[in-house]
Amino acid sequence: MRLIIFGGTFDPPHNGHVEILNSLKHYEDDRIIVLPNYLPPHKSANATSQDRLNMCRLAFPDYEISDYEINKGGKSYTYQTLQYFKDQYNLDQDSLLYVIGADSMRDLKTWNSPQKLAELATFYVIKRPHYQNTGQDIEEFKKLYGGKIILSDIIGQDISSTEIRLRNAFDSIDDFVPKDVAQYIKQNCLYNRYKVITDMYPKLNLPKKRIAHILSVALTALKLGYIYKADSESVILAALFHDIGKSLNLKKAYELGLNITHYTIELPAVCRHADFGAEIARKYFGIKDEDILNAIKYHTTARANMSLLEKIIFLADYIEPTRTTPGLEPIVQTAQYDIDKAVFMTIKKTMDYLTSQNFEITPAMKSAYEFYFKEITSGV
Hints:
Elements: E1 3-8, H1 15-23, E2 31-36, H2 49-59, E3 64-65, H3 68-72, H4 78-89, E4 96-101, H5 102-107, H6 114-120, E5 122-127, H7 134-145, E6 148-155, H8 161-168, H9 179-187, H10 195-198, H11 208-228, H12 232-241, H13 250-255, H14 262-266, H15 272-285, H16 290-297, H17 308-319, H18 329-335, H19 339-356, H20 363-377
Parallel strand pairs: 1-2, 1-4, 2-3, 4-5, 5-6
């Protein structure tokens, strides 16, 4: 018998998890268990362990769900779990398989006791979109610790639990999680952290098309964040606020008590909403992280020497899939491997358009153009 463990936070379980489990090649006498953890060492969970256990039972009704890590409590170190199942069922490395995604494979060397991990089980790695170096990650791990690692032919869906939690704020999870899981999330009011922000959109007169754009920017920014290892929470917050002031004018901004500076007033009217958004985030939602506030503030004009988060939001706003601007595909492709070059291409395309229409180009965008032109040509 082989024991195949599909572990994870499952916060929440989604259709991508279900598809992976159903696609696993296994023998008739293999035993497959789904193992939600109690306290993931590398990140925090949003739902309680009991809620995640309940949702796993709803998402995977045809599989055995183990409550081992949840009953054990404390941080859920995988090497301890593998040791437990190895001893419990007298398994060797070939008969104990642990399924992980390509994102986890990238970070496996940072897990607790990687040498023990390499010795206890065979790791079965599922490919994921936006993770292009999985083969290299496997070789690097094996050079350091040895072990048996199988790269599956299965490519997981382009979806994550983080995206589900984001989508829940837009009431758009039904197509991405099993029906019973969607119902459980609604009945138990889970993952409502971002709804306090999206609930304000109608009060600020944002039309449905603009709200759809914000969701699309947030999803695009998250995917860029996965590539460049940006903090997902900061990415989501900056994206959710970037256009929240889009329907405001100066009069309404003053009525809301926003701190309007001369810099804001001197901006072209079409750019002021970025400053309004940063001020709404600061005044009404207590956002103090200057990196998040700057990502909101400069998402239309850009500026020289932007942080990674600023570049991600600036790019995502321009290339998100609901945009119909011609000629975006080269920027979309470049953004997958060279974010500075993609930023420069976006600035240049924007400036070419503004010039052709005799529109004003802000000093911030001019300085951004000069900065990123030097950045991408200095290495040539």
